[in-house]
Amino acid sequence: MSIMDQNGGSVIAMVGKECVAIASDLRMGNQALGISSNFQRIFPVTDRIFLGMPGLATDVTTLHERLRFRLNMYTIKEEREIAPETFAHLVSSTLYEHRFGPYFIEPVMAGISKTPTGKYKPFIAATDLIGCLNFAKDFVVAGTASSKLYGVAEGLWEPDLEPEDLFETISQTLMNAVDRDAFSGWGCIVHVITKDKVITRTLKGRMD
């Protein structure tokens, strides 16, 4: 069994119309043994950027603290808030530095940035465990249920979804996919990022 499957967990990010959503399940286990039903995999980076980290639970905590330090250093040096694209490259370079003894995490990033025309542009990206970036215009997935998430998302996602429709789509995608994966599930948490606010909802799922 892969070390990436040791603690389970899955994350998905989706693009909407001037909004973006990121969601993860809440289960953390030791393979088939359930340990926690409220494990945090998604972290706020700024008001408009969120980072999801499926993978080895100990590395989630370590990498989150390391990225928080690097982000603070960037903010102090540049005297401005980091852009989603810049943050994605920051995550990528951090992982690539440790490529010979990698963090067993596949990060998923979601955020929105303001364009010069005044519109808000959604941004999503994912990397592998040594930082190879994958940009997408529809959705990105990671974790033990990623193959199931791809299948459901391909069928449900549509372009230019409004925030409420995007929430419904990402929720149905995640809940249906993790029901088919033994290492993910036990409910999920969904963040929908719009230009005005962040809507966070926790959903209950099967606990068997």
Helix content: 25-40%
Overall, the morphology is globular
- How many domains, in number, for the residues? 1
DSSP summary: helix tally = 4
Structure description:
The chain has 208 residues and is α+β, with helices and mostly antiparallel strands. The chain has one domain: Glutamine Phosphoribosylpyrophosphate, subunit 1, domain 1, CATH 3.60.20. Helix content is 30%, strand content 31%. It has four helices and twelve strands, in the order ββββββααββββααββ. The strands form three sheets. A five-stranded antiparallel beta sheet has the order 10-1-2-11-12, covered by helices on one side. The chain has a five-stranded antiparallel beta sheet with strand order 5-6-7-8-9, with helices on one face. β7 (108-114) and β8 (120-127) form a beta hairpin. The longest helix is centred in the N-terminal third of the chain and has 22 residues, at 57-78. It is globular and about 50 Å long. The mean pLDDT is 94.
Chain-wise SSE layout:
Layout (H helix, E strand, L loop, with lengths): L9 E6 L4 E6 L2 E3 L2 E4 L5 E5 L2 E4 L4 H22 L5 H14 L10 E7 L5 E8 L5 E4 L2 E5 L2 H11 L6 H16 L9 E6 L4 E6 L5
Antiparallel strand pairs: 1-2, 1-10, 2-11, 3-4, 5-6, 6-7, 7-8, 8-9, 11-12
